[in-house]
Write a structure and sequence with these properties.
Blueprint lengths: L8 H6 L7 E2 H8 L3 H9 L6 E2 L5 E3 L1 H15 L4 H36 L1
Helix pairs in contact: 4-5
Keywords: Coiled coil
InterPro entries: DNA-bd_dom_put_sf, MerR-type_HTH_dom
Protein name: MerR family transcriptional regulator
Length: 116
């Protein structure tokens, strides 16, 4: 039996951290910076906004979190290029930790199965 209220594609996008929902102006406002800062971290290749059909930059929530972290570093005196590199390394470290934890869980589950 099909679900009574199938998910609406637009609603699904609102929950998607990677959906480019925010214009440059709105994104800058949300993280308390300027569009120029967003362009600068784009030029430094920290984030690459998607483009609308009209060619306007669009940002996702995930990109805004990264941009906000870069802004914190720049506000504390870190040069923008260094801030971008730090954020990239922090993101890579976080991903490596998640993978490591997942591998430990899988290995633990395999060890429990072998012991049974």
């Amino acid at each position: 039996m099909p679900p009574e209220n199938p998910p609406h594609p637009t609603t699904d996008r609102l929950d998607d951290d990677d959906y480019p929902a925010y214009t440059m102006g709105r994104a800058a406002e949300m993280i308390g910076t300027t569009p120029g800062f967003l362009r600068a971290i784009g030029e430094a290749r920290l984030i690459t906004p998607l483009r609308s059909d009209g060619g306007h930059r669009r940002y996702s929530r995930y990109q805004l979190r990264i941009a906000a972290r870069a802004r914190e570093l720049v506000d504390s005196g870190t040069p923008i290029e260094a801030a971008c590199r730090i954020v990239i390394l922090e993101d890579q470290l976080d991903e490596a930790r998640k993978l490591n934890e997942e591998m430990r869980r899988q290995r633990g589950g395999a060890e429990e199965s072998a012991a049974s």
